[in-house]
Design goal:
By secondary structure, the chain is of the alpha/beta class. The protein has eight helices and eleven strands. The protein has a four-stranded antiparallel sheet with strand order 6-11-8-9. The two termini are 40 Å apart.
């Protein structure tokens, strides 16, 4: 339950996943106590051991986030988890793993991870971008911070939105469409026509920004008091 694990939990909570549905496994007593104090289900143990993953309720989970300190540990946890799920006939459980080095991405995928996030490579790209394109980095950082500025979401297409994707609300910027298991990027012509069963990937203002009131208006020259501004 380190930096990556805490960030993952924060994101889940921001998406209104109940605390009691989030289980944390860590081999450090202090980390387990911290997770428990936050209202999460907390277990002390080695996540690479099958009995620990089973106790955490893996076979009934929607997803597993693997974020240990080393890539070797991530591979072992992923292998163990995928074997448990395979034996239980629960292949639909999503496994998302963090990798420190890009060279270990393929190994994690072969171990059973559905998605691998590379922390070192991502940080390196941001550092490179920051030297030449600071505004781009600010937008990407905005997306990484929960509840501030921009958020990315996914939702089913609504019946009245079928057809040209231009029918979407102006505060939702389409970046992709998930159709029959395939992720279609926004620039693909197929994403311009929405079909029943599609799931939309879109950028939108964060919930906190939407709920935050605008600045107070100063009294006008005529002396009337201003109300709350709304953009």
């Amino acid at each position: 339950y380190g930096v990556k694990g805490r960030a993952a939990v924060e994101e889940l909570l921001s998406r209104r996943v109940p605390r009691e549905r989030i289980a944390v496994i860590d081999n450090q007593q202090l980390a387990v106590e911290s997770a428990g104090a936050e209202g999460l289900v907390a277990l002390l143990g080695d996540a690479a051991r099958s009995e620990v993953l089973k106790e955490a309720g893996l076979v009934n989970a929607q997803a597993l986030v693997v974020a240990p300190d080393t890539d070797q540990a991530a591979v072992l946890i992923t292998l163990t988890a995928r074997q448990i799920l395979s034996e239980a006939g629960k292949r639909q459980v999503t496994i998302v793993a963090a990798a420190r080095e890009e060279e270990n991405v393929v190994l994690l995928e072969q171990s059973g991870a559905d998605q691998v996030i590379t922390s070192a490579a991502t940080a390196g790209r941001l550092l490179g971008l920051a030297t030449e394109a600071k505004p781009v980095v600010k937008v990407l950082e905005d997306l990484h911070r929960t509840g501030v500025g921009l958020d990315i979401g996914m939702r089913p297409v609504e019946p009245h939105e079928l057809g040209p994707s231009s029918r979407l609300n102006s505060d939702q910027l389409l970046v992709g469409v998930v159709r029959r298991g395939e992720t279609i990027k926004f620039f693909d012509p197929r994403a311009q026509q929405l079909e029943a069963g599609d799931r939309l990937l879109y950028l939108h203002p964060s919930r906190e920004d939407e709920e935050r009131p605008g600045p107070a208006l100063a009294p006008s020259a005529g002396g009337s008091a201003g109300g709350t501004g709304a953009s």
